[in-house]
Amino acid sequence: MSALYKNYARSDIAFEKGEGVRLFTKDGDDYFDFAGGIAVNIVGHADPHVVGALKDQAEKLWHVGNVFTIPEQEKLAQRLTDVSFADMVFFTNSGAEAVECALKTARRYFYDKGEKDRYEIITLEGAFHGRTLGTIAAGGNPTYLEGFGPKAAGFIQVECGSIEAIKAAVTPNTAAILFEPIQGESGINILSNEFLREVRALCDEHGILLILDEIQCGYARTGKMFAYEWAGIQPDIMALAKGIGGGFPLGACLATKEVGSAMVPGTHGSTYGGNPLACTVGNAVFDRVSEDGFLEHVTQMGNHLSWSLQQLAQKYPDLIEEIRVKGLMVGLKVKPPVGEVVAAMRDAKILTVGAGDNVVRLLPPLIVTKDEIDEAVRRLDAGLKSLASKTV
């Protein structure tokens, strides 16, 4: 019997190694990884450049506390600010921690301005921001809140995608509006560019901070470095994780200088966040993502995958209801229970991940090639075919 907590419904499959978009079991079975550790493995498994950087750093220095200057951290922070709206970065170990830092930054900003009652955060229904007590309160999902005592105060959930609902929720106590430009956990729910621009304008009108959670949709996943770029806007604070470390635990909270300067010594901290090993890996992943043509490749592969999935949808109209795509962030809204579809795909040796709204997520490494997409679609076809035969 396993000594682990039972909070995951684990498959019996165990992987021994990975290479690019493939994972291999001890018995040599190969699977196409179109789950990507849930949007994490953006440069694939065992990328030589990232592995080399990790090995080199592992022989030098793994960890020192953040009371010292960490050159690798300084370098990655500068690179992130150079390609984003931000001026300042705080490094974390995970996405939930990045969101926690974002929430604290927003509240502390208004506290320092003398507006101590300005602590409320407006969030959207269907959101997922993490599993800490603060982030489950921000997400507002009753399932995740149940059994953990009173919900942390100061979070107001409104209808997703409704600017009128947000306007109605704004009060003198509103500090920030937090949302994902593309909701991943709730089923690849792509918020419109118009909505993002309307929220930005509302924030400007009322002096409210805009916090974006790009933990899943950021870092080149949509074909731009950050999803907010599609709308031509900029946030005040942004949470990143998942792809930023390519599989190594790493997250970041980015902010403008005006807002981030509120976080002075003693206001926040992290023992491991931004240590030399993590930031060396982060810099190696950044090297790969910033290569010439990388973003264009994501767009091209996203278009090819989208077209291929449309063909499958026409072939299996009784199984696939809708395709939601932005770059290489893909959702298949299916008609059978999503768990059955994910299991059928796994039997066909392709890994996917379920989401809300009966959606199967496809989140392949961003280095996936056209030939690999074609092979992945053949495996998807085999999985769908097996499901179709059971429904006849």
Descriptive terms for the model:
392 residues; 4-stranded mixed β-sheet; 7-stranded mixed β-sheet; alpha/beta
Summarize the structure in words:
The protein is an alpha/beta fold. The protein is 38% helix and 19% strand. The protein contains 13 helices and 17 strands. Helix 2 (48-58) packs antiparallel against helix 10 and helix 12 crosses helix 13 (370-391). The model has no long low-confidence stretch (mean pLDDT 97).
Q: TL;DR of this structure?
A:
With 392 residues, this protein is of the alpha/beta class. It has helices at residues 36-39, 48-58, 71-82, 95-112, 133-139, 142-145, 163-169, 193-206, 257-260, 276-289, 294-315, 338-347, 370-391; strands at 15-19, 22-25, 30-33, 88-92, 120-124, 155-158, 174-179, 182-183, 189-190, 209-213, 237-240, 251-255, 320-326, 329-334, 350-351, 353-355, 359-362.
Number of H- or I-type helical stretches = 13
Which class do the helix and strand fractions yield?
Answer: alpha/beta
User: Could you tell me the radius of gyration in angstroms?
Assistant: 21 Å
What series of H and E elements makes up the topology? Answer: EEEHHHEHEHHEHEEEHEEEHHHEEHEEEH
The proportion of strand residues reads: 15-25%
Terminal-residue CA separation? 39 Å
Provide the helix percentage.
Answer: 25-40%
Global morphology? globular
Largest sheet: 7 strands, mixed
pLDDT below 50 for ≥5 consecutive residues: which ranges? none
Overall pLDDT score: 97
Spatial strand sequence of the major β-sheet:
4-12-11-10-7-5-6
Quick one: how many beta strands? 17
